[in-house]
Design goal:
Layout: E1 11-20, E2 23-33, E3 38-42, H1 49-56, E4 64-69, E5 72-73, H2 79-85, E6 87-89, H3 102-107, H4 118-123, H5 126-145, H6 161-173, E7 179-183, H7 191-208, E8 211-215, H8 219-225, E9 228-233, E10 236-241, H9 243-247, H10 250-257, H11 260-270
Parallel strand pairs: 3-8, 3-9, 6-7, 7-8
Antiparallel strand pairs: 1-2, 1-4, 4-5, 9-10
Helix pairs in contact: 5-6
């Protein structure tokens, strides 16, 4: 989705790339995502998908190209500045504050909204309590969205794996982002949990008008939920299109299954 519709894309990545020594981990990555659009980023292990996320969130600095959020260049900004601008993410490996409660994990992401100062916090002034009440109510609303109501006072570490995944999404929502990056959100989930996650993601996108970029290895989830899919292999885009187009693209099939002649050679070797 581009500016042909007269709107600036929420995300525009132009020829993004990064090189580690002599290795190009991502090369000339370009992508546009419109408002409320849900796009999948897929590819074999090691294709560079999480590296793309790290570039867009400021974990890595691109060695080439640029990226924009609602038309504002994000190159050179630090991670916390990018989060404040409106990009939030979850991680392939869960990164919750395990020894904090569920609700405090969500409230921790709301620091930018705090209006009271250190003195008010230390002396627990009326302004402090008013602000805390507002943040707590907002956190409870977000936990309800991800089906974690009633778990507010549990330690994050005591949640089942699938619920920890959903808590990460609630914490990301607490930053009031414009673009949500989900890195394998269904990893380790059973089919029932995956279906519930799909419903949550769709609700979030429709209710908050948030754009979503999704990395996922569960192809059934990707094909159900994504409007467009971009495929990486060895750091390079090899295909982009609708789920139907991607499913029958020969380059994509080859990237996942290998060339037919290579497969035949392996069979002959094994024999």
């Amino acid at each position: 989705m581009a500016e042909t519709a007269g709107k600036i894309p929420v995300l525009r990545a132009q020829n993004l790339g990064i090189q580690f020594g002599g290795l190009k981990a991502v090369d000339s990555f370009s992508l546009e995502i419109g408002q409320s659009e849900l796009v999948g980023l897929i590819g074999p292990n090691g294709a560079g998908k999480t590296t793309v996320f790290n570039l867009i969130t400021g974990v890595y600095k691109p060695t080439e190209g640029s990226f924009y959020l609602n038309g504002e260049c994000m190159n050179g900004k630090k991670t916390h500045q990018i989060v404040k601008a409106g990009i939030a993410r979850t991680f392939q490996n869960i990164r919750l504050f395990k020894k904090m409660t569920v609700i405090d994990n969500v409230k921790a992401a709301m620091n930018a909204e705090l209006s009271y100062g250190l003195v008010q916090a230390v002396f627990r002034t009326p302004a402090y309590w008013r602000e805390e009440k507002k943040l707590t109510e907002r956190a409870r609303e977000l936990l309800k969205i991800v089906h974690l109501s009633g778990k507010e006072d549990m330690l994050a570490s005591n949640l089942p794996y699938g619920q920890q995944r959903r808590l990460e999404i609630a914490r990301a929502l607490a930053t009031d982002m414009k673009l949500l990056l989900l890195d394998e959100p269904a990893a380790g989930m059973n089919p029932t949990e995956t279906e519930e996650l799909l419903e949550i993601i769709n609700y979030i996108r429709n209710e908050f008008k948030i754009s979503v970029l999704l990395i996922e290895h569960d192809m059934s989830l990707v094909m159900k939920i994504c409007e467009r899919i971009q495929v990486l292999d060895f750091g390079t885009t090899i295909a982009s299109g609708t789920p139907e187009e991607i499913a029958r693209n020969p380059k994509v099939i080859e990237a996942y299954l290998g060339k037919e002649e290579e497969a035949e050679e392996e069979v002959e070797t094994d024999a």
